[in-house]
Automatic annotation (TrEMBL):
Ranges that cross the membrane: none
Enoyl reductase (ER) domain span: 11-321
Cross-referenced Pfam families: ADH_N, ADH_zinc_N
Biological source species: Acidisoma cellulosilyticum
UniProt keyword list: NADP, Oxidoreductase
Cross-referenced NCBIfam families: PRK10754.1 (NF008024)
InterPro entries: ADH-like_C, ADH-like_N, ER, GroES-like_sf, NAD(P)-bd_dom_sf, QOR-like, Quin_OxRdtase/zeta-crystal_CS
An MF annotation (GO) of this entry: mRNA 3'-UTR AU-rich region binding
Matching PROSITE patterns: QOR_ZETA_CRYSTAL
PANTHER family: QUINONE OXIDOREDUCTASE PIG3-RELATED, QUINONE OXIDOREDUCTASE-RELATED
Gene Ontology cellular component annotations, sorted alphabetically: cytosol
Protein name: Quinone oxidoreductase
Length: 323
């Protein structure tokens, strides 16, 4: 037997229960992992609250790192004792032990700790595809990044600066503004400012070719107004709530804009894409070009407290759970 966080009915953080569960056995093509660290992400809150639908009861979580305990039939790419990490469906990471499809795992270099891995797989791979694939940022371009002091935001600020971009970050407090600046943001705006007006001033009227918005409902309209003609609105989160239905004619009226809602699941669906993105991420982290900040650590049994901290929007960097 082992322990896991179980959700019997959707709701607030209080529905995250600490329960004893059978230790699963790996089936064909699967690996049993003993978790060392588990990532906490906004998508976990969406499943817990019912915003995203999944059968109940369920164990949340899509991201973790740990050690391979046992192999299922047909698994040849891994061995018992291997250090591994993942960010993938199916849900179930909030557990001491779990089985995962072997083709969703990556081997973790000795130079990257379990804690760093659990704090970077979701955020780092998200930053990788946002900056390199959803909209390929070029040197000299000015980009707008919301939640610039959050987990994804801090990675994006550093990585975009490495590319050679000019980064405008948006944060919710003066304390977070200092953090964003320390991680590469050239200009930092507070969320209660007139963001389009500030962007217009910074860019001397040119506006920006891309906005990366993980805030959602509270920032969506302003984000569209920050874009140059033919610009791309990348909406990839709902920290303030889901974006209401959009009148698509707005995109034409505001300059033939592009709108996308990218998902890490789609961008890493093929193993080759997962491995390529991970190689890119591990490279910039190992070279010190991107530093992963794990600023909050909770015991796995205290997952409810971790969710409350994330929902308060008072966290910075990454939040992890330790079994």
């Amino acid at each position: 037997m082992s322990h896991a966080i179980r959700v019997q009915a959707t709701g607030g953080p209080e529905v995250l229960g600490w329960e004893q569960v059978p230790t699963p056995e790996p089936g064909p093509g699967q690996v049993l992992i003993h978790h060392a660290a588990i990532g906490v992400n906004f998508i976990d809150l969406y499943f817990r609250s019912g915003l995203y639908k999944t059968p109940l009861p369920m164990t949340p979580g899509m991201e973790a790192s740990g050690t391979v305990l046992r192999l299922g039939a047909g698994v040849t790419d891994f061995a018992e004792g291997d250090r591994v990490a993942y960010v993938s469906m199916p849900l179930g990471a909030y557990a001491e032990k779990r089985v995962m499809p072997a083709d969703r795992l990556v081997k973790l270099p000795e130079t990257i700790s379990f804690e760093t891995a659990a704090g970077m797989m979701m955020r780092g791979l998200t930053a990788q595809f946002l900056l390199h694939r959803t909209y390929k940022v070029s040197p000299g371009e000015t980009i707008l990044v919301y939640a610039a002091a959050g987990g994804v935001g801090l990675v994006m600020c550093q990585w975009a600066k490495h590319i050679g971009a000019i980064v405008i970050g948006v944060v919710s407090s003066a304390e977070k503004a200092a953090i964003a600046r320390a991680h590469g943001a050239d200009h930092v705006l507070l969320a209660d400012e007139d963001i389009p007006a500030r962007v217009r001033d910074i860019t001397q009227g040119a506006m920006v070719p891309v906005v990366y918005d993980s805030v959602g409902r509270d920032s969506f309209a302003a984000s569209l107004d920050c874009l140059a003609p033919l610009g791309m609105m990348v909406s990839f989160g709902n920290a303030s709530g889901a974006v209401p239905p959009v009148d698509i004619s707005q995109l034409a009226a505001k300059g033939s804009l592009f709108l996308t809602r990218p998902s890490l699941v789609t961008y890493t669906a093929k193993r080759a894409a997962l491995l390529a993105g991970t190689e890119d991420l591990f490279d910039v982290v190992q070279k010190g070009l991107v530093k992963i900040e794990v600023d909050q650590t909770f015991a796995l049994k205290d997952a409810a407290e971790a969710h409350r901290a994330l929902e308060s929007r008072k966290t910075t960097g990454s939040t992890i759970l330790k079994p």
